[in-house]
Amino acid sequence: MEICKVFFHLSVSVILSPLQNYPLYIRSVPSQSELKFHYTVHTSLDVVEEKISTAGKAMAEQRELYLGLLYPTEDYKVYGYVTNSKVKFVIVVDSSNTSLRDNEIRSMFRKLHNSFTDVMCNPFYNPGDPIQSRAMFTMVSGLKSDKCGWLV
Amino acid sequence: MADDVLFEFLHMEMVSHVYKEQASRDDIDKDRITCVSILEGMGFRVGQGLIERCTKDYPTFKDDLDVMKFLCKDFWTSIFRKQVDNLRTNHQGTYVLQDNKFALLTQVSSGKQHLEEAPKYLAYSCGLIRGALSNLGLESVVTAEVSLMPSCKFQVVIQKS
């Protein structure tokens, strides 16, 4: 699966590819300590895989695309989302930013998914390539500034 | 007014364009195979993008059969404005989708006339199915057959890796 990682100072977003799990897109708000975020996201992949495979056994219920809080570490919270095309999105948020509610994370994933769909439908984009879309960049910057707006 | 047939016209022109291009080149023997694979390749890429849009708000699929049902109902409806009429499977990874009035063949003929030309008009749709399945994580081989227009069958064999 391709992982697109977008790291924000407060959060990191990642989009992961369907088959090989390499990053399709990575952004972090302040570009420091990116390596640490890379590591966090890669370890969170195991949790994502586990959630997908256990969900497969529960045939009765409808499964959502949003996976919820994957695991909290002492500094960060990691949220996951997987599309039907097996592309995984991961957002890492700073734990100190407690004002972010589930709904907001969901809407962030929604926006990420919408942008990703647009990128996919772009005839100049080859599936599997790193994403270089400006529209995606602008959207992700918008997400970050939204969160900054809540910082008190 | 003419909205319904816009894509059908485009598709017809696409097919004749691809064949004309190939005919103007020297290598006649490879013509048929290259044209079909060009059309199939086009369908593949379009299928990938389309399925991304179609499944955006859809909950996760339970298994392969669920995926095929989605393909036969929602996906087919969004492209051809009707559902696939019959889906058969051997539960071993082979599925046959039968459409009794395939939108891209209705204008060609309604019997045995022009039967030998029919495969040209099915290549793109085979690619569409293969692209859609590929993005859903299922590698497949899709072939189509026609015995009586405008009815056709698409055979999908899921590759187990």
From TrEMBL, chain A:
GO biological process: endoplasmic reticulum to Golgi vesicle-mediated transport
Keywords attached to this entry: ER-Golgi transport, Transport
Statement: the UniProt record of this protein carries the keyword Glycoprotein: no
Pfam families cross-referenced by the UniProt entry: Sedlin_N
CC terms in the record's Gene Ontology section: perinuclear region of cytoplasm
Location of the protein in the cell: Cytoplasm, Perinuclear region
UniProt KW Transport keyword: yes
Domain of life: Eukaryota
Coarse class of the protein's main subcellular location: cytoplasm
Homology family: Belongs to the TRAPP small subunits family. Sedlin subfamily.
Cross-referenced PANTHER family: TRAFFICKING PROTEIN PARTICLE COMPLEX SUBUNIT 2
Name assigned to this protein: Trafficking protein particle complex subunit 2-like protein
Gene, per the UniProt record: TRAPPC2L
From TrEMBL, chain B:
Primary location class: endoplasmic reticulum
Pfam families per the UniProt record, alphabetical: TRAPP
Subcellular location(s) per record: Endoplasmic reticulum; Golgi apparatus, cis-Golgi network
Any Gene Ontology CC annotation: cis-Golgi network
Stored SUPFAM superfamilies: Ligand-binding domain in the NO signalling and Golgi transport
Keyword list, A-Z: Endoplasmic reticulum, Golgi apparatus, Neurogenesis
Domain of life: Eukaryota
InterPro entries (alphabetical): NO_sig/Golgi_transp_ligand-bd, TRAPP_component, TRAPPC6/Trs33
Any Gene Ontology biological process: nervous system development
Function recorded in the entry: Component of a transport protein particle (TRAPP) complex that may function in specific stages of inter-organelle traffic. Specifically involved in the early development of neural circuitry, likely by controlling the frequency and amplitude of intracellular calcium transients implicated in the regulation of neuron differentiation and survival.
Family membership: Belongs to the TRAPP small subunits family. BET3 subfamily.
UniProt name for this protein: Trafficking protein particle complex subunit 6B
Lineage: Eukaryota, Metazoa, Chordata, Craniata, Vertebrata
